[in-house]
Amino acid sequence: MELWEAINGRRSVRAFNDRPVERDILERLLEAAIWAPSGGNAQTWQFVVVTESKRIRSIKTVSPGLLGDPAAVIAVCQDLAEARAKGGALGETFLAPVDAAMATENLLLAAYAEGLGTCVIASFHRGAVGRLLDLPKGVEPMLLISVGWPAERPPAPPRRKDDIVSFEVYNA
Amino acid sequence: MHEIGLEEKIFELVGYMVTSGRNLLDETPLYGPFRLVDAASRLILLLEDEEVISSRLSVIRERIDAGKYSVMTSPGEFRTFLDSLVDALVDHMNPGKGKGGDQLGKRTEISRG
Fold this sequence. Notes:
The structure holds 2 protein chains of 2 kinds.
Chain A: H1 3-9, H2 23-34, E1 45-50, H3 53-61, E2 72-79, H4 80-113, E3 117-121, H5 126-132, E4 139-148
Helix pairs in contact in A: 1-4, 2-4
Chain B: H1 6-23, H2 31-49, E1 52-53, H3 55-67, H4 75-93, H5 101-104, E2 111-112
Antiparallel strand pairs in B: 1-2
Helix pairs in contact in B: 1-2, 2-3, 3-4
């Protein structure tokens, strides 16, 4: 698939069919994620892939932004202690969430290329999800990604194009 | 896959509502009404799963699910959607008398299947 096709075609999907996502496909998505850039090449991310339906339902119970019934949920986490050790306060408070977001976008595009639907979720209770995933102290979930075979193809929301790009200096 | 019992379904809905209550402290205010109508949709779906059938509730759920995501794209459209939803509720309080009542379906007494 051409890169631009994935960039333009990807949507946030919130309705999935019942078909499971095979393990090798999930592993390819994670491979795409870990090829993302990271500040200072820190690579302090951690990924937890959940495919057990009961565990997904538990996560969904404390994740209001997780809509539909995906075959898998991927928690994009950061080891904040390691991020601080490698990048100082900037690493912990800024680079860690930014790096998680960059890895997430790689994963979304790779999923789209596989024919999968995804949705990024920030509306979840971090402490509760951390407990359900048995995350160790210092490892925090940054984002959840729902993954499954899409049962819908949402239209593209309008894109803001005016007044958001400047060349050379702001708003020239 | 194990069968999901009624108590578990209710627990999950309560979890959704409680967690929404906490998270909304930090989220965009627009998500408040979204979570409320989404919770209503989930409640109706839960009842349908349990074969507690009401055609007017099903119509309301379908309308919610068709319009709720406008919150992501247009606050104005979302507001209009919520107004139309309240209108639909009023229509279904007096079946056949309110505007659009016939289009939306007559009231059906809840019956346990």
